[in-house]
Design brief:
CATH class of the largest domain: Alpha Beta
Radius of gyration: 24 Å
Bound molecules: ligand BES, manganese (II) ion, zinc ion
Number of strands: 21
CATH architecture of the largest domain: 3-Layer(aba) Sandwich
Largest sheet: 9 strands, mixed
CATH superfamily of the largest domain: Zn peptidases
Structural class: alpha/beta
CATH topology of the largest domain: Aminopeptidase
Number of helices: 14
Distance between the termini: 25 Å
Length: about 500
């Protein structure tokens, strides 16, 4: 959708539809009050008759707007004014978009970004509005033979009351659009089924899409290259599949050559059957989302390509399938990682860490100032934290703090779990340097403990996105998380222009 920022007066604005907020109980926002006055108190009267109370998630469409230049009015319930926070702001925006998509409105002017949101700045409100609206506009129907009729809504103006701050708002809009573009790119990759989004497809799409951006370089290492590198852990997972593995390396150079990059590593299992330790069949289709770490990392590179901020970032994405096969890893097999450490594969379903450990070792060659890996790594993380925050662990408290803050700012939150030495004992193997599983207890932590053994030379953090990367049930689909968090973390390092103050 085409978004713009403008300063307009609601009663004087020509538009297919004006969108204004109403708080509980029947409290008109400033923009709604102006319209009410111009309409001789009609909105007040409607509310009085009980047509809308202002509860969150509700709306009221007025299909005609009297003598106003605008054609229609959409009143959106925002809940109690004193409770109006990040979650309710985003909910109001989504309610507005979904209501507008159902009617024949080509363009709308949205006054919700003028509402004060607890503890949030104007640039924040604009950026989040852009992200929320663009993400609410996203559909995945390319594999349906009968497409839904595309909604008429093509343009929206985000109103900014204070004309003096339009430039600031414009910059925030550009950032929000770029993040949403990256997140929707990630969602598209995530939603594609395993028979379309194969490792080769993921690599090809990364190459095609990202190399169109300036300062972006994409390299794809093939099986022979990965063999030559001796990524024995990664290759052992790939061996069970007919689809050859790929290692995608994307470099974005927006800063000076000698400025050390941030490295992002994404788990790219395009389908996780569990391998010989095969998964139960219930909901196994959702294991097509096991490449959402890769998608999140590539989506973040997409954002960088669009925004061109002054920073260097390298993305390393190992991608393969985890399948049962005569050649597949067997429980008890011992493989040698790129680092030289040996691993006893006690469970072939703990494959993410096997491909990530080699990718993490590989990042050492870029001398990164920080490394973040992103992975749908453990069901245990979902048990521990549910579907709201990503799990966060790492070996550098300052880095962890920055990522937690970025998540809070971007409303794409993470929550730290302890990475204590004590847990390392669970990875003991009688036959190799370590086992690839640590038993039932603290599964998300022991998975990170495993990765920690490959990141001793790095400032490293690990995001377990198993609970947040996709939704199940009737809204089944990729969420695009954690593109917003990663973007916020990176942009925070790019100077004032890119921050949310
Ligand atoms: N991709 C899964 C993790 C996962 C499972 C994410 C369910 C979301 C929902 C990962 O490869 C896996 O299978 N992990 C195992 C690890 C276990 C064998 C130690 C798990 O979580 O059960
Ligand atoms: Mn698995
Ligand atoms: Zn997996």
């Amino acid at each position: 959708m085409e978004l713009t920022v403008k300063t307009t007066l609601p009663p004087a604005t020509r538009s297919d539809c004006l969108v204004v907020g109403v708080f509980e109980r029947r409290k008109l926002s400033a923009a709604a009050q102006e319209l009410d006055a111009a309409l001789g108190g009609r909105l007040t009267a409607l509310l009085k008759h009980g047509d809308l109370d202002g509860k969150e998630g509700t709306h009221l469409l007025l299909p005609e707007a009297g003598d106003l230049p605008a054609r229609r009015l959409l009143l959106v319930g925002c809940g109690k004014e004193k409770d109006f926070d990040t979650r309710r702001y985003r909910k109001a925006l989504r309610t507005a978009v979904s209501a507008l998509k159902k009617i024949h409105v080509r363009e709308a002017v949205n006054y919700l970004p003028d509402l004060p949101v607890q503890d949030r700045s104007l640039p924040w409100r604009i950026r989040i509005a852009a992200e929320t609206i663009q993400q609410a506009d996203y559909r995945f129907d390319r594999l349906k033979s009968e497409k839904d009729k595309p909604p008429a809504l093509k343009k929206m103006t985000l109103n900014v009351i204070d004309k003096a701050r339009l430039n600031q708002a414009r910059q925030a809009l550009a950032i929000g659009n770029a993040i949403a573009g990256g997140a929707n790119f990630a969602r598209e990759l995530g939603n594609l089924p395993g028979n379309v989004c194969t490792p080769a497809y993921l690599a090809g799409t990364a190459r095609k899409t990202l190399r169109a951006f300036p300062n972006m370089n994409v390299r794809v290492l093939k099986q022979k290259d990965i063999e030559a590198l001796k990524m024995g852990a990664f290759l052992s997972v790939a061996r069970g599949s007919r689809q050859p593995p790929h290692l995608i390396v994307v470099e974005y150079r927006g800063a000076a050559r000698d400025s050390r990059p941030v490295a992002l590593v994404g788990k790219g299992i395009t389908f996780d059957s569990g391998g010989i330790s095969i998964k139960p069949s219930a909901a196994m289709d959702e294991m097509k989302f096991d490449m959402c770490g890769a998608a999140g990392v590539l989506g973040t590179m997409h954002m960088l390509g669009e925004l061109q901020p002054p920073i260097n970032v390298v993305a390393v994405v190992p991608t393969c399938e985890n399948m049962p096969d005569g050649n597949a890893n067997k429980p008890g097999d011992i493989v040698t990682s790129l680092s030289g450490q040996t691993i006893e594969v006690l469970n072939t379903d703990a494959e993410g860490r096997l491909i990530l450990c080699d990718a993490l070792t590989y990042t050492e060659r870029f001398k990164p100032k920080a490394v973040i890996d992103v992975a749908t790594l453990t069901g245990a993380c979902v048990i521990a934290l549910g579907k709201h925050p990503a799990g966060l662990l790492g070996n550098d408290e300052a880095l962890i703090r920055q990522i937690l803050d970025a998540g809070e700012q971007a409303d794409d939150r993470a929550w730290q779990l302890p990475l204590w030495e004590e847990y390392q004992d669970q990875l003991k193997s009688n036959f190799a340097d370590m086992a690839n599983i640590g038993g039932r207890e603290a599964g998300a932590i022991t998975a990170a403990c495993f990765l920690a053994r490959f990141t001793k030379k790095l400032k490293w953090a690990h995001l377990d996105i198993a609970g947040v990367a996709w939704e199940s049930g009737s809204k089944k689909g990729a969420t695009g998380r954690p593109v917003a968090l990663l973007s916020q973390y990176l942009l925070e390092q790019c100077g004032k222009r890119y921050r949310l103050e």
